[in-house]
Design a protein that fits this description.
- Chains A, B: One of its GO terms (biological process) is peptidoglycan biosynthetic process.
- Chains A, B: This is Glutamate racemase.
- Chains A, B: It comes from Acidipila rosea.
- Chains A, B: Provides the (R)-glutamate required for cell wall biosynthesis.
- The structure is a homodimer of 266-residue chains.
- Chain A is an alpha/beta fold and 266 residues long.
- The first copy, chain A, has eleven helices and ten strands.
- In chain A, helix 3 links the parallel strand 3 and strand 4.
- Chains A and B meet through helix 7 and helix 8 of A and helix 7 and helix 8 of B.
Chain lengths: 266, 266
């Protein structure tokens, strides 16, 4: 089984990282569209154009199953991608909303994500379809903070406190009783501990990367992972392979090797 | 005189803002390559490709003089741009270094900029050619903080203190006696007051947008601005014109009207 994983950058490697132990005998090809990132601040038309060419690239390289590990592309371009390729496509929003439904008792959930993901209200819609009420909050500084490497850093704690207290105030104003927080961006799992410390302990934090890997394994009928850990991973990037290797290793949790530069135009 | 001003986004509007009172009777066309921003984190090859197509677009629209208001493109792609178009091209690095030379008595200067600008050492080279010793510091969080609108904000003050105290420590370690700080990114003029408060009062802060406008006016032989303030400005963006208008007005200091969407491919 050859699984294609796509993200605008290295963040989707948190999804690949979660897939590896669940399906260790699959073959993975990963594309980071680093020449055109970030998607999070761009328009739907532009994101759809970038995401479909990226998905087509992975399909052309033999991917039999596509995981859209980019929240923004999942939110804004999933239908476009499904029309552009003939293989099954799973996005992180649906699987994140599925995990929120399993987690929440109060049916009130919070989602933090990029500007574009929040503006699309894709999480709200996916949650509504599952009988949940979601409130979304854009946290545009978290990606640059993660990329700066300021993980366990006072500034990051302060920024998280500001964003999360504003979010909690919004839920209170709306009379909500949230018990679940979805990390709706692939960079956020690196801040999971800091986020868990910044919210009341009654709140369950859902990592959409983990949720997606679970969803993909379920969809492909994988129950118990084989002992085999010889997964083959190939990496492609549309910009500097050196930077992809360097930043990517932090997200994958292991060294990223053999990155190939590809030109998708533009 | 039709002057083309190019930036990866809205930041270059600080340069246009500085040009307007100096050359109020010129006609301006501004291109923000917002579909492909930010350039600051990308590779030289990618930046050169994006910047030359952008410059060619402005030349094709009749620009008789090009101002590269993007520090990253000025640092990494000025020669490529000059080869790609037949009109005169001025970048922000040279004019910033000229202003630093006029300002500095100790010949030791500091520059803050994006990752890519710093990695190129374009400011160091331009300063060295002018008999100055420059030390450069990448401040990747400042652009997202400005775009979040956190201008006079405790987090921004804290981030500035961290970056600038690291920079001052580096100058001390090198036995430098800096008296000048160049703002080597078009977003930074919005933080000028905060930056001036965070450095010793003996340090002169050079705004590369102002420096560039002065340099362009000098190059074009404009001495005293005419009373005329009827400058015509046309704006083009490669992504959401609505977002360009909204964010851009903050940088231009006046409403941005008539933004036209253009497709440069990619």
């Amino acid at each position: 089984m050859k699984i294609g994983v796509f993200d605008s950058g290295v963040g989707g490697l948190t999804v690949l990282r979660a897939l590896l132990p669940r399906m260790p005998s699959a073959e993975y090809i990963y594309l980071g569209d680093t020449a055109r990132l970030p998607y999070g601040s761009k328009s739907q038309a532009t994101i759809a154009r970038y995401a479909t060419t990226s998905a087509q690239f992975l399909a052309a390289r033999g991917a039999e199953f596509l995981v859209i590990a980019c929240n923004t592309a999942s939110a804004l371009a999933l239908d476009d991608i499904r029309q552009a390729v003939s293989v099954p496509v799973v996005g992180v929003i649906e699987t994140g909303a599925d995990a929120a439904r399993r987690s929440s008792s109060t049916a009130d959930v919070m989602v933090i994500a990029t500007d574009a993901t929040v503006a699309s209200h894709a999480y709200s819609s996916a949650c509504r379809e599952r009988g949940l009420h979601a409130i979304e909050k854009a946290c545009p500084l978290l990606v640059p903070l993660v990329e700066e490497g300021w993980i366990d850093h006072p500034v990051t704690r302060e920024v998280l406190e500001i964003y999360l207290s504003e979010l909690m105030q919004d839920t209170a104003r709306q009379g909500m009783n949230p018990d679940t927080l979805v990390l709706g961006c692939t960079h956020y799992p690196l801040l999971r501990e800091q986020i868990e410390r910044a919210v009341p302990s009654s709140i369950s934090v859902i990592d959409s990367a983990e949720a997606t890997a679970e969803g993909v394994a379920a969809r492909l009928g994988v129950k118990t992972p084989a002992g085999d850990t010889g997964a083959v991973c190939r990496f492609y990037a549309t910009d500097s392979v050196e930077k992809f290797r360097r930043l990517g290793s932090r997200f994958l949790g292991q060294p990223v090797l053999h990155v190939e530069l590809v030109d998708l135009g533009g």
